Amino acid sequence: MDVLVLIDKLDDLVHNAKAVPLTDQVRIDREEIYDILDQMRATIPEEIKQARWIVKERQEMLAEAKRECDRRSLTIQRACLISSGIVARIWSRMS
User: Fold this and answer.
1) What's the gap between Cα 93 and its chain centre?
2) Prediction pTM value
3) Interatomic CA distance for residues 27 and 18, integer angstroms
């Protein structure tokens, strides 16, 4: 379960808890709290794994994009050199 959903459940549990008369305190079922906390403990490691996977995928995509950019840059540089050579030959023939 999503950690944010569990936080919302915890918030609802506190918000809807019965007030203790003449105090600022509320009564909450301890087992319900422990159940939600256990679910949070179980969920957080999985979400961290997912986040790490997303970061890894992003880094791999960026690395691939950089390699493609470098490859295209070399192709453009080669094309410029070739075209410069062609222009130089044309100019030398025209002279």
Assistant:
1) 58
2) 0.51
3) 5
Domain containing residue 78 = 3-94
Q: Which residue has tokens 């003449």?
A: 22
* Inter-residue contact 3 to 43 (CB < 8 Å): yes
pLDDT in tens, 24-51: 999 999 999 999 999 999 888 888 889 9
Helix (H) or strand (E) holding 19: strand 18-19
Cα angle 88, 91, 80 (rounded to 5 degrees) comes to 30
Has residue 95 got a pLDDT over 80? Answer: no
Which amino acid, one-letter code, is at 74?
Answer: L
- For residue 26, the 8-state DSSP code is E
**Residue of 85 and 9 predicted with greater confidence:** 9
Residue with tokens 């023939």: 93
Residue pair 36/4 in contact by the 8 Å Cβ criterion: no
